[in-house]
# Entry
Amino acid sequence: MPVKELRLKDLAVGMEVAKDLVDVSGRMLLAKGTILTPRLITRIQTMLADRTDIAVHVDADSIAPTVDKQAHKLLEAASGLQQAMTAVRNSQSIDMGPVEDAVVTIVGQAETTKGLWEFVETVWERHHFVYYHSVAVAGLAASIAKWQGLPANEILEVSLAGYFHDIGKVRQDNDNHPWIGVELLTRYAGVSSRVLAGVLQHHERCDGSGFPNGTKASGIDPYGKILGAANAFHRLSLASQRTGSMFLLPAAEQILKEAPVKFDSMAARALLESLIPFYRGRDVRLSSEETGQIVFIDPAKPSAPIVQTASGAVECGSRSGIHITEVI
# Structure
């Protein structure tokens, strides 16, 4: 692996640390393999502000990673996000670290400036939920785009739009935040018009009932359609996460039921189909207190899978009155 030494001021989002960085007391500051995120760079630069001689060893290939390499990392992260969603129990939060590590590699492509990252830092510091929600939407958008068969560069773009889709909330948390987000991205980052369209339209709905412009299906960019489904799904899934069930297919099924009136049918179907594989074979607890393994999921009714228990196969759903309460 080619390694390059960089001064603190030259560190950039998405770079991979190639050698442990420790302080004079031996305390670990950055471990080998760490992907630099906005928060990490800010923390290290602040902690070592008086040490202009400090050099960080980074993987030279990570300084300007190829689209294919970034796409691979991002898709791995999207899978990791979904696996975390099914694995986390009780009131624990989803571990967004690995997802964030990969998602931020996209940002290098946008040639963002320090000014934009100051806004990202503000979102992190003042609005933790908004930040983590944005990381989750970016990962989900990658899964939807992959299922739809989009090329690597478009997967990266739509994920970048997901990462920044709520950045306008740093200024105003109302129905005008998509426009404010576009204004900030236009001012501080060289992102594409497609990314801007996704940010602007993530709350638009196919029947024209969304905001900020009431745009109907024919006028919504495909990125906006993908983000609309990913954004709505993640917010719906939070109720399940708070109860600890982590069985999120009912939320994805709800998005599909609202298509094509509210959401794009292809994006909604892609969301559901990309989640199903992560539940097949999972151990679950039922409302009957039995435990078992999911052995079959019908895409037509994914919230009612068949679970094999010690006493036999159980078909979940309204007919049996049994549902999944926890993914073990």
Q: What stands out?
A: DSSP finds eleven helices and nine strands in the chain.
